[in-house]
Design a protein that fits this description.
Layout: H1 4-12, E1 34-38, E2 41-50, E3 55-62, H2 69-88, H3 105-121, H4 127-146, H5 158-171, H6 176-195, H7 224-237, H8 239-250, H9 255-258, E4 266-267, E5 272-275, E6 286-289, H10 292-301, H11 327-340, H12 350-361, H13 366-373, H14 378-391, H15 396-399
Antiparallel strand pairs: 1-2, 2-3, 4-5, 5-6
Helix pairs in contact: 3-4, 5-6, 7-8, 8-10, 8-12, 12-14, 13-14
């Protein structure tokens, strides 16, 4: 009953731990089933590789229900013959499918990475979208390596997704929005696995995001007196960052867009800045107004004296020919936050919200605020107008009003 192939497998199975380096072949490892009788009764015993645990595990099949020693032994021979045939054909007792259908999870991840790289190169993904997905994949790999060994695609199931989201939300102490972002990534990744035929259905189906009504926004507007302190500090310690703060506060330019802007996009004579569609979030080419304060500070820094094809922010936030990651702004902002002991909710991007809100407070026409912020509609600008109105004092005529009642 033992072929030369099986003898080789049996010999190699003496190692109690087989890693995923063996790939799908690891799941073929097994011992030859044997029949045993002892005080506990009669049973068939063999060991097979368990992908969940990454090692060989003992499997027993009890036969006490078969009455009579002769009948039991005859039945055992029939079962052992059938087990050997199944094991030789790729069956594994710890897996609910044939080994021949197994796909190594790491290979699926690598194929997904190749997919998103192609999407970036073809212009279907923005750089920040690509970077986000790469970051999610990195964290998922770390989770697999340290917390949950996962060798095959079939192990990427609903329980994996739920446990991974708990790891992100609870163990890594991230906010609800971040947890929801990871859920969105898992949904996209699940869809990819289904499209490639690796899975029959998406394991994320039925996993709900945390409702936005239940969590507080992690970013807050910054009080104007604190904004003044930030400006004073940056003017002395972080002059290049202050220029970025100006563009965010007065022009509402997103950090990722700042990293792509070049000197040629600025028209100092017309006091305008044109953001090409290929650089912007909404894929639309739009022109906004540059306040003289912003222009003058850029001139003083020497930004507009750089070659026209230079990025206005490169390494050390100075003009240069290399595009940088938006993370550079956050790193510099962290220095400011620690020095001034700012609240963690006052993020670099908070300057945009604060700038729009102050512009509304100064009674700038809503349509002008909309155009400057490149909002898709006045309804979005109205959100800031409502915030502004909620802080305004009551009408003095109504405060002193005394009616007939």
């Amino acid at each position: 009953m033992c072929s030369k192939k099986n003898s080789t497998l049996k010999k190699s199975s003496d190692n109690s731990h087989v890693t995923n380096q063996s790939g799908v072949l690891a799941a073929l490892h097994h011992d030859i089933p044997t029949y045993k009788e002892n005080g506990a009764g009669a049973y068939i015993e063999f060991r097979a590789y368990d992908p969940e645990q990454g090692k060989m595990r003992r499997k027993t099949i009890k036969l006490n229900r078969i009455k009579g020693i002769t009948n039991r032994r005859t039945y055992a021979r029939q079962v052992i013959k059938r087990l050997i045939e199944q094991l030789n054909n790729g069956w594994n007792p710890w897996i609910a499918k044939d080994v021949g259908d197994l796909i190594v999870f790491e290979e699926a991840i690598e194929r997904y990475e190749a997919h998103i790289e192609k999407m970036l190169a073809s212009g279907y993904f923005r750089k920040e979208t690509y970077d986000g997905y790469k970051s999610y994949v990195k964290i998922m790999r770390e989770y697999i390596s340290k917390k949950r060994p996962t060798y095959y695609v079939y192990q990427f199931d609903r329980k994996f997704c739920v446990d991974f989201l708990d790891h992100v939300f609870i163990e890594r102490n991230n906010g609800a929005q971040t947890r929801n972002n990871y859920l969105n990534f898992l949904r996209v990744f699940s869809g990819f696995l289904v499209d490639k035929g690796y899975l029959k259905s998406k394991p994320t189906d039925g996993i709900a995001p945390i409702s936005k009504r239940l969590y507080k926004k992690e970013r807050e507007c910054i009080p104007l007196d604190v904004v003044g302190r930030i400006a004073d500090y940056c003017r002395e310690k972080e002059p290049e960052l202050l220029f970025a703060c100006y563009l965010l506060y007065y022009c509402f330019i997103r950090p990722v867009e700042m990293t792509r802007l070049k000197v040629r996009h600025f028209n100092l004579k017309a006091c305008t800045l044109t953001i090409p569609g290929e650089l912007s979030k909404n894929k639309m080419t739009q022109t906004i107004t540059l306040p003289k304060k912003v222009i003058q500070y850029g001139i003083d820094l020497g930004v507009f004296s750089a070659p026209v094809e230079y990025f206005i922010f490169s390494y050390r936030l100075k003009p240069g020919d290399a595009e940088i990651d938006p993370k550079h702004f956050r790193d510099h902002w962290d220095n400011v936050r620690r020095a001034l002991k700012l609240k963690k909710e006052w993020k670099f991007y908070s300057l945009k919200d604060t700038g729009i809100t102050e512009m509304c407070d100064r009674n700038v026409a809503p349509r002008h605020v909309k155009d400057q912020a490149r909002h898709s509609s006045l309804a979005i600008t109205d959100i800031y107008l409502q915030k502004s109105a909620s802080k305004a004092p009551g009408n003095r005529d109504i405060i002193g009003y005394d009616g007939a009642l």
